[in-house]
Write a structure and sequence with these properties.
The chain is α/β, with parallel strands linked by helices. It is built from twelve helices and eleven strands. The strands form two sheets. The protein has a seven-stranded mixed sheet with strand order 6-5-4-7-8-11-10, sandwiched between helices. A four-stranded antiparallel sheet has the order 1-2-3-9.
């Protein structure tokens, strides 16, 4: 059974349903999209249980191996760009630096990090992808932060989370665990979708508000996808969450996402999106949020 929880950022218990957002996702009962009236963080309510998460991400139907491999390989240049960002903030040290990827999927980001001289470690809840990543990267893959802490007994230089935090029902606990796993001065790098707040979603929500449920049911996310994201962040709420865990924000921005479609139509669509995404990023309405935060060198 799904569960109700208090706000992970402020502990608030008063929330309000977002009717239009719920319509956009076509959520099955009893799920709705709500926001905390105290800190404004948006979440799915109630939250799926841990067992439901494991079952959901263990489903082989969630991953088409051929399509997954194709998409993952297209992301390699994006992962190199991400490593450029990480290396610009991470201090050089003697020996090999380590990097922990939260929600590492098939390990393609970790493989890029390994090829650049880093020691890769992954966390992945899906047994299918964890097994794939172990073979592909040749590194240790764990199922949770606790497993990493209990088995490795080391601290991390960098913890990276790429489109994982929005899938997690206990984001504050995860970010706090990341804080304790990092070395003093270590960095946390997070990317999440700017769902409901990007220029694209603002337009979609406006259309649903004007034209109603018919638009939502015909053009937007089908129910099979609606439970994948359990938190919906804004630049403000991701900053609140990460600051609460003890981090100092060093970089926070909305940016252009990567595009992986192929074909003439997709190429034309991609160019159009890129143009508007670039404009939207200047007003903080880009499709994804990227945050780089540092653990203080001196922690009380």
């Amino acid at each position: 059974m799904p569960k109700k929880i208090n706000c992970p950022v402020c502990g608030g218990t008063i929330y309000q349903k977002l009717e239009i957002h719920t319509l956009k996702l076509q959520l099955p009962s009893p799920y709705t999209v709500v926001y905390c009236t105290n800190c404004n963080i948006i979440r799915l309510d109630p939250q799926p249980t841990q067992l439901e998460y494991v079952e959901h991400y263990s489903d082989s139907m969630y991953y088409s191996s051929q399509q997954y491999e194709q998409r993952a390989n297209m992301k390699i240049p994006i992962f190199h760009a991400r490593m450029n960002l990480i290396e610009s903030f991470s201090e050089k040290a003697e020996g090999t630096r380590n990097i922990l990827d939260l929600g590492c999927a098939g390990g393609h980001f970790l493989k890029v990090a390994k090829d650049r001289g880093w020691t890769p470690i992954g966390i992945e809840i899906s047994p299918v992808l964890a097994s794939y990543a172990t073979r592909y990267v040749g590194c240790q893959i764990f199922s949770s932060m606790n497993d990493v802490a209990n088995n490795l007994k080391i601290t991390m230089d960098v913890i990276h989370s790429n489109h994982s935090l929005e899938h997690i029902s206990n984001p504050y606990e995860i970010v706090k665990e990341a804080f304790f796993l990092l070395k003093p001065g270590g960095i946390l790098v997070v990317e999440v979708p700017y769902e409901f707040g990007s220029w694209r979603d603002i337009i979609k929500l406006s259309l649903i508000r004007i034209l109603g449920h018919l638009v939502a049911s015909k053009f937007f996310s089908p129910p099979v996808d609606s439970l994948h994201h359990t938190y919906f962040y804004t630049p403000t709420t991701i900053q609140l969450l990460i600051n609460k865990a003890g981090f100092i924000i060093e970089y926070l921005s909305t940016v252009n996402p990567a595009y992986y479609q192929t074909g003439l139509f997709s190429t034309t669509k991609r160019i159009g999106y890129r143009f508007f995404d670039t404009i939207a990023s200047f007003i903080n309405r880009g499709p994804v949020i990227v945050c780089v935060a540092r653990k203080p060198y001196t922690c009380i």
